[in-house]
Each structure stands twice: as C-alpha cells, then as structure tokens.
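hi!! sorry for the late reply, been swamped w classes. u asked for the two structures so here they r. pasted raw, havent cleaned anything up. first the sequence of the first protein and right below it the tokens
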Amino acid sequence: QVQLVESGGGLVQDGGSLRLSCAASGRTFINDRMDMGWFRQAPGKEREFVAAIGWPGGATSYADSVKGRSTISRDNVKNTVFLQMNNLRPEDTAVYYCAGGMTDRPFRPSIRAENYNYWGQGTQVTVSS
C-alpha cells in the first residue's frame, strides 16, 4: 500500500503562488515504477487532471488550463512530488489531490485518473479575486 499526504494548500490572492507537496510512504517511486500526478476538483465539478510526471522522472504533462503557470517535479530519494503554481486565478480554486500509479511505460505519464491506484486526501487551494 502507498500512503500519500498532501500539504501546502491555502488561501492566496489572485496572481499569487503556492507550492504543493505530496509525501509518499509505503512504497518508493523508483523501485515501484510510479507515475505521479495532481488532479483537482472544484465544487460542483468533476475531478480533472492538472499535471503528471512520469517514472523515473523528467517527462511531464500539463492540462492546458495550467500550462505555463505550473511546474511538477519529483524527488525520488525523498519520495515526494511537488506542484509549483504561479499566477494563480480564482478558477484554480479547488481541492488538489496527489495520485500515484504504477506503470511499465517509462517517460510517459498518464493523464487519466483511472490509471492512478493511490490517492491522497486532498489539500484545499483557494484563490481570492
């Protein structure tokens, strides 16, 4: 089993920045060949893909809505994945979830939620206008 714990959410003004972190325990990113992703869910909306970084690292994918404003990265030694978000907008307000999925395809991170086996509890990001 993998436990994922997010942190770094909060309240920020329009145009501000946040850095989300997700610490994993129970397995290791490298040995267990895990893609890592971030998804979000706003009130009344379905969960949507935000960003992903593939096993073993380097290859990334972003939703169009955050491309150019966000950077996903991973530390395979510390089993932690990060999401740096800049120039935040009110429409970025959502609960952000970290997810991990085992893969046999290096450098090709999945953007599909159904390909992720493990999920964190989520961290709230609120952007005020």
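now the second protein. again sequence first, tokens right under
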Amino acid sequence: QVQLVESGGGLVQPGGSLRLSCATSSMIFDIYDMGWYRQAPGKQRELVAVITVGSGTHYADAVKGRFTISRDNAKSTVHLQMNSLKPEDTAVYYCNARNFWGEGTQVTVSS
C-alpha cells in the first residue's frame, strides 16, 4: 500500500518559518512528480508547489519567493521550506504523488 507520511507542521508566529517533510517509498518517489497542496477551513484544496522527477519546480503565486520545495533522493523525501509565514498560510498541508495523498499536517500561523 502506498504511503505518504507528512511531518513538520505546527504553530508559528507571523514571519516565522516551518519545514514540512513527506516521506514515501522509492517506487513512488522515483517515478512521480511530488507536490504540496493546502486546504484552509471553508476553502477548496489548492496547489502550493510541485517538484518534478527531474527537480523542476512550480509554485503558486501566493507563496513564490517565500516557500521552497526540494527533493532528497537518498531518502525518498520531499521537503517544503516555508519562510515569512503569514496568517493566510494557515491550512492543512497535504503531500501528493499522482493520485496518492498523505493524511495532512496542520500549519497554523498566529500571534
């Protein structure tokens, strides 16, 4: 069974940083693009960032210049470094590979 296991969420003050991680099997990691999505209360799930197998990246306009997605090929893990966090970044963040999803990790930005 395919598993995407997220970690690294939490509570942070505005302007702070968090690093999310998503670990999966090499079978999934080596052949699929990996992405982060988020869903805030009352809103639809939206794309945050994607990294291709070849390490090409794409970001939502709302996070460009603040978030960085990266791949650790040795550990079959994708990271999302989130800097200069804003209250509007508050959401459940989900890891995605093709049609597989993690369970999500809560990120709350509040003073």
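hope this helps!! also noticed smth abt the second:
Residues 26-29 form the longest helix (4 residues).
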